[in-house]
Amino acid sequence: MAIHYEKDADNIVTLTMDLPGRSANVINAEFGQAFLDALNKVTQETELAGIILASAKDTFLAGGDLEMLVALDTPETAFTNSEGFKAQLRRLETQGKPVVAAINGAALGGGLELALACHHRIAIDNDKIKVGLPEVTLGLLPGGGGVTRMVRLLGLQAAFSYLMEGKQVSPKEALSAGIIHALAADRDDLIAKAKAWIKERKSAKQPWDESGYKMPGGDPRRPEVFQMLAIAPAMLRKRTYGNYPAPEAIMSAAVEGAQTDFDTASRIESRYFAQLATGQVAKNMISAFWFQLNSIKAGTSRPAGDQAGTKKVGVLGAGMMGHGIAYVSALSGMDVVMKDVTAESAQAGKDKIAKLLDKRLSRGKMTKEKRDEVLNRIVATADAADLKGCDLIIEAVFEDRALKAKVTVEAEAHLAENGVFASNTSTLPITGLAEPSANPENFVGLHFFSPVDKMPLVEIIKGAKTGEYALRKAFDYVLKIKKTPIVVNDSRGFYTSRVFGFYVNEGAALLAEGMHPRAIESAGLQAGMPVGPLALLDEVNLGLAMHIRDQTRKDFEAEGKTLPNHPGFAVVERMVTEFKRQGKAQGAGFYDYPVDGKKRLWPELQQHFPAAAEQLPQKEMIERMLFAQCLETVRCRDEGVFTSTADANIGSIFGWGFAPFSGGTLQYINAYGLKRFVTRAAVLASKYGERFQPPASLIAMAEKGETF
Ligand code: NAI
Question: What is the pTM of this model?
Answer without folding.
Answer: 0.94
